[in-house]
Amino acid sequence: MNFDQPDGLSALLQRLQLHAEVYVNGEFCGPWAVDTSGAKHMPFHLISRGEAWLHMGSEPPRHLTSGDLVFFPHDDRHIIASDSLCPAEEAINVDSQLNMGPITQMVCGFFEFKNKQAWPLVEALGSVVILDLSAMSDAPQVRTVLDLMIGELSREQPGHYAAVNHLAYLLFVEVIRQQIKVGAIQSGLLTALFDTRISRALAAIHSQPGRHWSLELLAAETAMGRSSFAKRFNDMVGMPAMQYLVHWRMQEATHELVKTQRTITDIAEQCGYESEAAFRKAFKKVTGRTPSDVRKAR
Predict the structure, then answer these.
(1) Which of 96, 108, 104 is nearest to 51 (CA)?
(2) pLDDT in tens, 68-127
């Protein structure tokens, strides 16, 4: 195993600055309904005890039971409620005055990419992902993560807030792994990141964007021939390898322009450009803006 260079998915998550946070761990009883969409995050809910119903637009309600994790990759409007009948708008996110009936315990949180120029990592995911964690005997590590999370939330020892958020980060990675494993994602960047060969090229690009890569050098990273690599990369990622390299470099450049005071010349060199003029031209072509415009707008 090579520990000198992170794998493609790890390098991508580091650059996109994935952040996870749990903000509710509560018991719900009586008639209740919650909607956590609209904050431009990726909400998730874990039913840790009891049951609930998921309502999404015109789709039939879906029954949720203990161990179900619901994740909304695109922040679609959703309602988690106590009843199979969709609640009235005025009853959503209102504290119930009736403290009777069955109790549902639910953990709510969100995933967020701090890098607002985030690569479309989750574009291949559907509007909602539901995992029955209680039935995932082939993935005991997911159950372990959840048990640790619930334990931290119930004990509320010093440091539990940070611990829970780190565990939620692990949960995101496991959700992505499970979606690949069950075949829910058939193409796109995520699939390529799990491909034993193309992932090596992606890891090289993500970790060393400033290296003077060629198609031959990237193919060598995967132990494939130039032509077969070029076709496989394009088929899986949806764009040629050298085009992806340029796009990734511009993601790196945008991050540096917004987050640092480095000169544009230094950023150009970091991204593999020998002249500032060539960098400016490529940046404008990919992003539609000049580096100076991006820096001023920050």
Answers:
(1) 104
(2) 899 999 999 999 999 999 999 999 998 876 677 789 999 999 988 877 555 567 777 889
Burial tier of 212 (Cβ tally within 10 Å: 0-12, 13-18, 19+) = exposed
Question: Residue 12: which residues within 8 A CB-CB, separation 6 or more?
Answer: 119, 121, 193, 202, 206
Q: Which two tokens stand for residue 53?
A: 């119903």
CA dist 232 → 59, 184, 195, 248 (Å)? 37, 20, 10, 19
Q: What is the DSSP letter of 234?
A: H
Closest CA to 38 of 4, 87, 78: 78
Cα(162)–Cα(166) distance, rounded to whole angstroms?
6
Name which residue leads in pLDDT, 180 or 2: 180
Structural domains for the chain? 8-181 (2.60.120.280), 195-297 (1.10.10.60)
Gap between the Cα atoms of 253 and 259, Å rounded: 10
Over 80: is that where the pLDDT of 279 sits?
yes
Q: pTM of the predicted model, to two decimals?
A: 0.76
Angle at 14 between CA 180 and CA 24, to 5 degrees: 75
Taking each helix axis as running N to C, give the angle between helix 198-207 and helix 8-16, from 0 to 180 degrees, rounded to the nearest 10.
40
